[in-house]
Amino acid sequence: MSLSKKLWVIIGIIMVMAFVGTFAISTLSAQRYFSEQLHVKNVDSAASLALSMSQVDKDPVFIELMLAAKFDTGHYKLIKLTAPNGEVMVERHQSRNLDKVPGWFARLIPVSAEPGVAQVQDQWKQFGTLVVESHEGYAYVELWNSTLRLLGWFVIAALLTGMLGSSLLRLILSPLNAVIGQAEAIGEQRFITTAEPSTTEFRRLVRVMNTLSGRVRKMLQEESQRVEELRKQAQLDPVSGINKRDSLLNALDARLSEQHSAHSSGMLVVLRIRNLADLNQAMGRQTTDQLIHLIGMGLQSIVQKHSHWTAGRLNGSDFAVITPSVVDTEAVCNRLHSAMLDAWPPSIEGLSEMKVHVGGCLFKAGESASAVLSRADGALAMSESQDRLHIDAGLDEDNQNLPSNLANWRAALESALKPENLMLCQYPVISSKGTLLHYEAPAQLRIAQDWLPAGRFVPWAARLALMTQLDQLVFDNAVDTIVRDKLALSINLSLDAICNHEFQDHMIQRLREPGVKAGKLLLDINEFDAIHHQPEFRTFCLALKPLGCKIGLKHVGPNFSKIAELHDVGLDYLKVDTTVTRDIDKDPGNQAFLRGVCVVAHAIGVKAIAGGVSSQAEIDCLASLGIDGMTGPGIKLD
Question: What b/e readout covers 284-296, taking b as 16+ CB neighbours within 10 angstroms?
Fold first, then answer.
């Protein structure tokens, strides 16, 4: 029972008790008063009537008329004249008329008064005895009306008191809503803080809960930083500060293995400092290392602005950048080339002689990393021989039917963005015990009569600002599939979609339709997008989470240290990037990092899911690290 209802019950009980007490006291007093007044009236009436009768002629008819007149005008129940020998000479009697008063009330509160008795004289002789008894019905009516008025007042007073008390209770308990919200958030592993209310009791409670939230948040931040240090030790080159060769190749292999990912195609750019040995001899090792570090930071400053871009150092003089979902390849290469040249102030002696060559090649899912590296090395060799940028674009030789420029891609995509041209694949995500959790549902689009994976058309859709339309098609298809097949599906949403309020309204409307089980829909958001656009992501979560759908981050890894900043949005799962899980059974550094990810994820009540799992050895290792779910080419349902 709510506090408001309890308040009304208490007020009702108090009012009933007050009414009963007041009724008893006032009614008994009134009963005694009416009895006394009736008795006085009886005595006075009997005395005055007897005196009047003693002074008149004792004609029987006249006497009877006098008594009848008195009886008819005085509200009497009985007037009786009895002779000295006991014979009744005249009697007028009226039965009690209590139609306006319930019988139980009259029985509960009896009103009675002694009759008035007086002697009637005839000269010096006694003529008779006069008995007068007033009718008590009028006293009952007055008592009943008084009781009804008293009851009405108490009812009105109870209602007014209840409404006033409820208003005061809401005012007093208004901070309780914030306390309840904070308690619910903590129960959902969202460690938020609230302003301290003015109410002393609530202030102490909120202060304690804020302290708890702060401690947990601090613990998560510290653990995230510790895990980030493990990632840096395992993946980063100590001199340049960007990925080691093995980590970079893992990232490339991960992109190539994601057949249906939007980031499975792109470009590998290799940059070489041709005269690094001469610079090292001229400036010394310490200065050269500082140069390499600044070059790495210059490349990283570009990479960190783009989702799924990865920079690494292949060897002493060679750097590489993986740029998935790239359309304008030449502009990207020139930008990376400028970043290397601008990394060190030209005032240092010898730097003006630094020579940087750039070569790149396009790649797509299904290729081997060695083949891509070979083509990139060939492009770099062409760049060195010709002393200009060279890009190997042989990727699209087997796709003559695809659009060849931006205008053609716009026409093709606008024509293809229809429900009949979209298909959702289904790849199982299983628990560490082998049970099905849900299906990942990457999209394929039919363009030029071919079903293309996301990696081929998503970069162009993003370039042409068509991602919201694409995401809406994917979302509607997923909802229809959930209703039809009763499956749990996870779909990818772009940054454009989570920032579009009209699209959010459409999602809310559809998820509220009868028969739609929102709990079976999982929404994957890029870690990069959620971290770098937190206000929009929080707004998106606040709008969709109350409907029951689940929201998680995918491609978790590079920005993991910042995930603690999202402790208050109610995440349901984290999907670790393939670059971390690739060959995890052979990489102690990534094992330590992933174990830390699981610890942090479980601390905030979310599941950790590994992507890109390809072998039984990886499955066994991931299960031992505490991972909750797995997906990838090596995952099959029994």
Answer: eeebbebbbbbbb
